[in-house]
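Minutes, methods subgroup
Present: GH (chair), OT, SY

1. OT presented the first of two proteins processed in the latest run. Sequence and structure tokens recorded below as shown on screen.
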Amino acid sequence: MLGRHKIRRRRRTRIIATIGPASSTEEVLARLFQAGADVFRLNFSHGTHDDHAARIAIIRDLEKRFDRPIGILADVQGPKLRVGRFGGGRVQLQTGQTFQLDLNPTPGDVMRVNLPHPEIMAAAGIGTNLLLDDGKLRLRVTRKRPDHLMTEVVVGGPLSDRKGVNVPDVVLPIPALTVKDREDLDFALEHGVDFIGLSFVQRPEDVAEAQEIAAGRAWIMTKMEKPQALDNLDAILKLSDCVMVARGDLGVELPPEEVPLAQKRIVRAARALGKPVVVATQMLESMISAPAPTRAEASDVATAVFDGADAVMLSAETAAGQYPYEAVNIMDRIIARVEQDSGWRAGIEASRLPPDPVTADAIAAAARQVAHTIGASAICAFTSSGSTALRAARERPEAPILSLTPSIQTARRLAVAWGVHAVVAPEVHSMTETVARATRVAMAEGLAPHGSEVVVIAGVPFGQAGTTNALRVAHVK
């Protein structure tokens, strides 16, 4: 039987851990949560619905045992573009040779192979680059016909059955959600997940479609993994609830030297809008098989923290690696150490953007300034939808943010937000009741000692989303 422990993170940046064969039991998931995981990711590219249902049940049980909201991210697969099969299972393509991609389902050879995606045939043009097997091979289109593309092998190598195809140069007329994705989406929403990871986003319309299906039942976390999405970054972010810098897939289609710049650009744009942003993929990759990360990986995590990302994510490290607990533990330690550094705080201060000229943003900015001036122990944000807490988090205050909400769904979603400690509490109906509850909960949660001060922000009239317009300073007694 797991004991009840008061869980309060001593860091602002959140950790997402992916569940897989190495981390599917209640015992392991409990250890990962205690080590620092704030959100658990279910990868719908693997596993059955029964598998995912069992993991969701375990997480919700842990939530009750530890008396802390835990976020669940359902990451749907998206379209998978692949070549067909070869007669011998594998060929060796030589740099400079010609190679045909066609709609003929006959097994391929060293001269041709099936590409069962007429959309690529339609969208590609002379000079279009095609990347195979996660970018290991590169082809360039030299001739186009309705049923085939003739290419030159720019970078050769071995190519085997069903390897992936990426087309970085053009927008493909393919929806972000496949039939499988829609089935997975329905399942995930029925089981009360908190975030939907949306893959293969190219246009704002892809996000709008997912939002229509979700209908507010989960936040849409748009995965930035296509160069075309970067061309529509602002419009995509405005339609998204949160965003993920999916560096693995992004790095296949972008030159390596462009990926760090894209990461910083996405983080900066998301922070400007107050949308939570996650940096993901290969953060502690060596820990799949080693008990400690490389120094470069530690620096990679630190860079995301210095940039002001809301969360960092572990993928195979916790899903299939030999050291899932150690991976979460060291990521927690790296984040905590960076956030103790004076240079980190100076960078956060320097990167803060002015508030938007609306009342809610003005109140959030004032709360940060007042808390700084008086040395408040916490900023207490009452919120129904989460927007008040997100506005406070956008300011990146020194004081921790205590988010009080009557909605467990909102509390779970805020598990991905920078610096937010969410607590489910009954609705309040007056400012006097608001202040009393804020001070009582702040002290009970270990955020504000007796005799300290807290800054309270809320919306009047109470219970209406998006009405943040009130600020009070309260003494904890």
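2. SY then presented the second protein from the same run.
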Amino acid sequence: MGNILEDLSIEDMRKGLYTDKYFLRSKEILREAEINPTLRFQVFARRGGIVKGVDEAADFIREITEDKATIYALKNRMFYETGEPLMKIEGQAQDLIEWETGYLQIIAGALTEYVDMDKISQNAKAIVEAAENKPVIYFGARHFATTLDEKIAKICKEAGFVGCSTDIGARAWNNKGLGTVPHALILAIAAYMQENGIQNNPTVEAVKLFDEYIEPSVPRIALIDTFGWDVYDAVATAKAVSSLAGVRIDTCGERYAQGALEIQLPEVEFRELNIPKRYIRSKGVSIAGTWILRKGLNEAGYENVESTVSAGFNAAKIKAFVKADKVFQRKYGSPLFSSIGTGSVYGKAVNATSDICAFFNKRVDAWVPMIKTGRSEMFSNKLIKL
């Protein structure tokens, strides 16, 4: 595999220090629950350009999984469009789910090339200042080369962040990585349920399994936006899991959150506070979507279930949400949100994303779509089987 991870080895990666904690916990849950569907992941970048890092990422996947994955990819130095799949990876959930951080780091690190640490420090300080009293967690490991994670986490610690998602980064806090339920776990469980004719709610089932298999000291925080029923799934999970500490809102940028276009908001107050419209009823995690979710939980009697917002939270977006939070607190006596998860510390980073997009249903001997609502499987005739 050469030196694609610079001074790191496959054995370093196998220890899990550089992996987002929620993927490690997902692997543990799938193993303990004996859930192991065959999945297809698609990898794409947020900005078009020249392919870099994909050959090396494929080498990493082959070695770390001991050739248990089938890989289709564009070749390095080809041109790609924004959103075009750079790779598709097929294999069993337990072989692949924990390695998403690693191969995205290789691709994102290659695409971004130069990283200005002083600028990251400035941005991290601006994020904490904008958040005021809201705790901020660093979720950006996947956006940068693997060997930068510890350095960037330390910068975030010095800026006032309260933790991060990898164990190597969390050393700055003398702690372990933070993270609970990702989309990948929910989709893997949804695939298993669909293949086996199980009719329950996959979001609820994922959190129930987390509650069953993960040590009680880890807060139970449910990701509730996977299937577009953000409010419904938040309330359903709170009803089903008595230990639920919070929900995380991570609505993808391709759709509006449930109810975001219909909810009545204090528009006059928002105008007086100069809250930019792009954050109020936008696609992705919006003030309107967070507002209706929080109201839904409160009205159902779950005021104590906290809300974490994540996805694209730079200083400007955080300022807008903090202003809206003050309005919400004046009207309802409780916070709009309680904490922030963000990796948006460097605007020039070329972020890479991996989605589960399908599963192989052995009962019908065919690949079946399985992807978060708002996204769809993307195709390219330039992909080559490696």
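Chair's summary of item 2: The domain at 10-114+351-385 is CATH 3.20.140.10 (nicotinate phosphoribosyltransferase).
Next meeting: continue with the remaining queue.
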